[in-house]
Write the structure tokens for this entry.
Amino acid sequence: GSDIESGLFVLRFGPPELAIALGEPEPDTIAPTGGSCSVVITELIPGSMDPNSPTLTYDLGAGATTVPLVANGGSSYSAPFPAMNCGTQVSWYVSATSLSGQTVSAPAAAPASSFSAIVGDSLTVARADDMESTAGWIAGAPGDDATTGIWERGNPVGTAAQPEDDHSPVGAQCWFTGQGNPGGSIGSNDVDGGSTTLRTPILDMSSLNDPTVSYYRWYSNDQGASPNADVFVVEISNDGGSSWSLVESVGPSGTGTAGGWIQHAFSVSSILTPTAQMQMRFIASDLGSGSIVEAAVDDFEVSDVNCGDG
């Protein structure tokens, strides 16, 4: 087949030849000295797998690296991680390809989605907000000027841009930008006319060894007449909101701009010195014309990364 933009591409049909899955629960941490994760690859059609294809792809924030899986015999493999700096976030997935060119991955949507872990010997959870209660979070900030799509907490009404469900396995609440009407249009109460801000309460991280923050975010800006024109900005402060430093800016195009719950984690000390006056904010904006902008936040967690005896 072909199309005018992408050129020639190959379509393959037929039954699935391979299956791949983790042989253990997805790890929250990976040891700084390196480690491994069990992987099971099943040949649904015996002899169908390219024996050189099982791979681990990991990213420490500077680009993806691919290494071969270690064969343990039969369908058992190990994903080998190198030594890494404590407190680093590592995103990763595993994959294998059949001799006919069918590729399977875990997670299934990789590389668009991936597993995520923190490099460390263990994590101690200091705070976990599943958004089933307000828990001190604040919708709105001085300077906000969006006319619709203001942050609110609840059970979102899904559209092609806004989530139908929160991320948490239990409960239904999350923070999102404006509740639409069931059966309404994709632009029903999306962000329009400026910016809207969601803020955490003040967080005391002064007693933590090496605090790590993680959260799940949803962001969609690829719909409407002017797609991929805006960004979703996440910032952190260590002086109670008097000054701010960038955590991440999502968009205006690329990964993370077409919806879907995506986890982001980072070491606080890689950006700012942890204090008793930490705060974060999430800013969704429609600063152009004709865009459909929706954002959401769920499952916010502050953890303390432990490395060795520290």
User: Anything to note?
Assistant: Residues 156 and 164 are 6 Å apart (CA to CA). The chain has a mean pLDDT of 92.
